[in-house]
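Please, structure for the following, as tokens.
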Amino acid sequence: MLSQKTIDIVKSTVPVLEEHGTKITKRFYQMMFENHPELLNIFNHANQRKGRQQTALANTVYVAAVYIDRLEEIIPVVKQIAHKHRSLGVKPEHYPIVGENLLAAIKDVFGDAATDEIINAWAEAYGVIADAFIGVEKEMYDAAGWDDFIPFSVVQKVKESDEITSFYLKPVDNRALPSFIPGQYISLKLDQIPGEEYTHIRQYSLSDVPGRDYYRISVKREKDGFHPDGVVTNFLHDQINEGDQLLASAPAGDFTIEIDSNDPIVLLAGGVGTTPLMSMMNHVLETQPEREIVMVQAVRNGQVHAFREDILAKNLNHPTLQYYACYSAPTDEDKQEGRFHKEGFVTKEWLDEIVPNVAKSQFYFCGPVSFMKHIYATLKEMGVSENQIHFEFFGPSMSIQQPEEVLAN
């Protein structure tokens, strides 16, 4: 329990955190990696390079300061981050390292304003926040059944489009796989990539239903392998084949379908954002065949349209499933063969036409950041309430309301 004095001191730093939060977290990561380079084996270098991780942490620190007297109100945020931590293998022994470097970064950025009183208050507050994370993560590790990465064998590799390939994974020791909730992901840990000094860990959505003796992930090839965001995906596409082994974590993530609800669902997928939504769609079709589904895929053209034939077949066999494709740049062949329902981008007018019951539907969407921000703004324009909206960023959380230039990928 924090004293009122500590709470007041922490809250007094909120304006500075609002203005200089990202500067603090940039300094934090710089200091931590200099002092503990082994942690470069855990963090995503691409997100570091893009500044997304620094921004996400700055937002978390700011929210923690604002709600320091009502920490129970940020438990959903704690759980969301804890899912990611559990999937990365973050352990209790990492928290003192983070605390030491975070306090040093605050002191460095605050300068003369970083009095002993402020640093001591933040040290006390950090201890309480860290204990909350450690407790939540312990429950997640216990529920998962294992707390490390275990070897899986690639039993099947299937090309889904020019950009996306599926990998079917079975545990080498033939253990029973823990179930998962559609929408969750697993982490892959790769330490065998040629020319890479550090281990890379990446999260990939599970793209099939739970209850199978395998996990399926469907991975998009990035444009090149020379930047951190393309190294891992291109290695999987080019170097990993059937019979090879990969290290994987147990499923995690809080972007999950409400399996106990009968509300109609609308699944809006941009590009590879289809992957968690495929799991949701297939699970509902198997377990709740009477539940209404609208599935929308927004892609550039037919060459990069993954799972098209699979979804079309299900569309024919399940009258409760309505399926639509939106192509932003269809080829002449796409137009001749009528492979899509709308050219351009997903719009309010189109969704009003194809979604039978906007007021009662639950909306789930995933894809490139620009696509998601566009979809969110469109849903709000349609009058969809916040409790009907569910989404997940691939990577660190960020604002859903900032405008972007490109709408689909």
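Confidence is low (pLDDT under 50) at residues 402-409. The CA atoms of residues 86 and 137 lie 6 Å apart.
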